[in-house]
C-alpha cells in the first residue's frame, strides 16, 4: 500500500480526453501529451497551470510597483491594504502551483487561482466602475483574455483528471 502511494505521487496519470485511456504523461516536456493508445494530443496541463502562475508573477510585480508608488504619493488607504492582501494571495498561488506535481488535480491550486483572479477583477475592474471617471481599460482587456483561458483550463483538467490510478494489467485484486 505504501509503495503504491509513493508510485502514485512520483508518476501522475491523466485520462485521454478522446478515448479515456489513463496514461502517464511526460512531465518534463513542454509539448502536448500524446495518448499512447489513440495518439490524441492532450493539453500539457502542468505547463498551462504554470502559465497561469506566470501571470500571477506578472500581477505580483505590477501590484508591488503600484503599491510602492501609491504609498509614497498618498499614504496608506483601504485600496492599498486590499492590494497588499491581493499580492499575498498572488504569492501563495504561485508557490502552490509551482510546488504541486499535479496542479490540475490540486484543489488548493484551483481554488487559489479562481480566488486570485476573481478578487483581481473585483478590485481592479468592479470597484472602479462605482466611481465616475475611473476606468482601467488595460486590466479589463487582460481579464477578458484571462478568464476564458482559465475556464478552458478548468474544463480540460476536469476531462483529464484520473479519479483512480489504473492497476497494471495482470494484477488481480484479492
Plain-language structure description:
The structure is a single chain. The protein is elongated, with a radius of gyration of 20 Å. Residues 1-9 and 170-174 have low confidence and may be disordered. The protein has five helices and four strands. The strands form two sheets. Strands 1-2 form a two-stranded antiparallel sheet. α2 (45-74) packs antiparallel against α5 (137-160) and α3 (78-99) packs antiparallel against α4. It has 174 residues and is mainly α.
Question: What Rg, in angstroms, do the CA atoms define?
Answer: 20 Å
The helix fraction, in percent, is 55-70%
- Helix and strand content put the structural class at mainly alpha
Portion in strands: under 5%
The description of the largest β-sheet is:
2 strands, antiparallel
Order of helices and strands: HEEEEHHHH
List low-confidence stretches.
1-9, 170-174
Mean pLDDT over the residues:
79
Strand numbers in spatial order across the main sheet: 1-2
Count of domain modules? 2
Amino acid at each position: 500500500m505504501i509503495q503504491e502511494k509513493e508510485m502514485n505521487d512520483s508518476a501522475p496519470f491523466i485520462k485521454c480526453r478522446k478515448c479515456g485511456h489513463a496514461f502517464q504523461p511526460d512531465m518534463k516536456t513542454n509539448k502536448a501529451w500524446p495518448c499512447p493508445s489513440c495518439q490524441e494530443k492532450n493539453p500539457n496541463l502542468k505547463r498551462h497551470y504554470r502559465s497561469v502562475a506566470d501571470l500571477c508573477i506578472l500581477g505580483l510585480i505590477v501590484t508591488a510597483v503600484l503599491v510602492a508608488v501609491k504609498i509614497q504619493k498618498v499614504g496608506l488607504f483601504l485600496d492599498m491594504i486590499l492590494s497588499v492582501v491581493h499580492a499575498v494571495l498572488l504569492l501563495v498561488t504561485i508557490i502552490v502551483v509551482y510546488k504541486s506535481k499535479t496542479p490540475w488535480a490540486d484543489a488548493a491550486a484551483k481554488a487559489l487561482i479562481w480566488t486570485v483572479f476573481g478578487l483581481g477583477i473585483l478590485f481592479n475592474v468592479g470597484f472602479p466602475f462605482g466611481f465616475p471617471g475611473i476606468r482601467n481599460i488595460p486590466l479589463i482587456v487582460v481579464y477578458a483574455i484571462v478568464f476564458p483561458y482559465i475556464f478552458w483550463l478548468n474544463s480540460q483538467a476536469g476531462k483529464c483528471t484520473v479519479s483512480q490510478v489504473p492497476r497494471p494489467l495482470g494484477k488481480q485484486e484479492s
